[in-house]
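Q: Second attempt. The first request was missing the SMILES, so the protein and flavin-adenine dinucleotide are both included now.
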Amino acid sequence: MDVVVVGGGPAGRALARACAARGLGTTVVDPNPERPWRATYAAWADQLPADAPIAVSVSRSRAVTTVEHVIARGYAVLDNERLRRLPDDVRVVAGRVVGWSAGEVALAGGRVLTGLVVDATGAAGGRAAQTAVGVVVPAERAAPFVGADEALIMDWRKPPAATTTDPTFLYAIPVSADEVLLEETSLARRPGLPLDELRRRLHARLAAHGIPVPDGEERVRIALDGRARNGAFGAAAGSIHPATGYSVAAALRRAPVAAAAIADGRPVARSAAERVVRGLRLKGLAALLAMRPDDVPEFFNHFFHLPDNLQRAYLDGDGDLRGTVLAMLRLFGSADWRMRAGLAFPVQSAKTSGTPG
Ligand SMILES: Cc1cc2nc3c(=O)[nH]c(=O)nc-3n(C[C@H](O)[C@H](O)[C@H](O)COP(=O)(O)OP(=O)(O)OC[C@H]3O[C@@H](n4cnc5c(N)ncnc54)[C@H](O)[C@@H]3O)c2cc1C
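A: Got both inputs this time. The predicted holo structure:
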């Protein structure tokens, strides 16, 4: 059987590799298959399959909410060059798909490719987004924020400058042996927090420690509540976690499973449990979007006090319905009455007022 994977991002390429490994004739179509990836893709180390290409990893993580939490969990930054690499038996076609059907796709310009078509064209639709602006600095300059052999997953302490009340945090991870990415991040907002505001806050954090702003920046916009398309894979299938923006580790883990389904003639579909978990996570996103800005660090304080297995279930248990429900119930139970009301009835509040959209 021939497979046509439309979209050559991390998910499409992982699926193409897995299909080729099963001996399926595999084609990847992407408008710019040779364009290097600029994004820094990272994940909890224990969520990556053993053969994931890791550029840098650290053995522990830290989060600062209203207090500091040490998380006994490694974190890894992926090596984009190797993440992009495809075996020689995968055919790569440069082009944009403009016409779809089950057994063929039409490219702009008229070319037609036949085979079982899988949509891996990334997230589409939705209005809530995670946005971030990051810079890479020498590790010794980043020392006030993050130590050696650790990742700062989130630090909710307020930046010295902000022109809106939107909550943002600092994310700091090593990207090479001697460089660290410092990223000001708005976890979730509808619409996404403008990059100017994030840049202002990041630069103010750097200035407070006498760190010059380096050239170049990473700009992040991740659609959190994009439409999940049937028969799709990766972000196109709604696999971006609505409360974290992560999807790459899940795509790497699922690719062999999806390839097995294709080889057996079964559809590339999410299980019923996975669909329900996504629905619950979207409810979690709604609660986060409605939360008063000052409550957000407290909410994550409760989160990091959950037992490890429930934290993991909520973050990574894509089909773990029981764990996801238990984590959400425990969070609800530990919140005070005001936060509980917000979690139970998440109505988009006036949180975003005063901020240009
Ligand atoms: C800067 C940045 C940093 C991120 N960091 C992380 C991270 O650390 N960890 C994490 O888990 N997630 C991260 N994400 C979120 C998410 O995991 C990524 O967006 C990831 O790239 C999604 O992979 P994907 O392959 O499903 O989709 P995409 O990467 O969006 O790939 C889709 C591909 O399909 C192509 N395409 C679209 N339409 C067509 C068409 N009609 N015909 C042919 N090709 C088409 C596109 O050109 C693109 O190459 C980050 C996102 C960004 C933007």
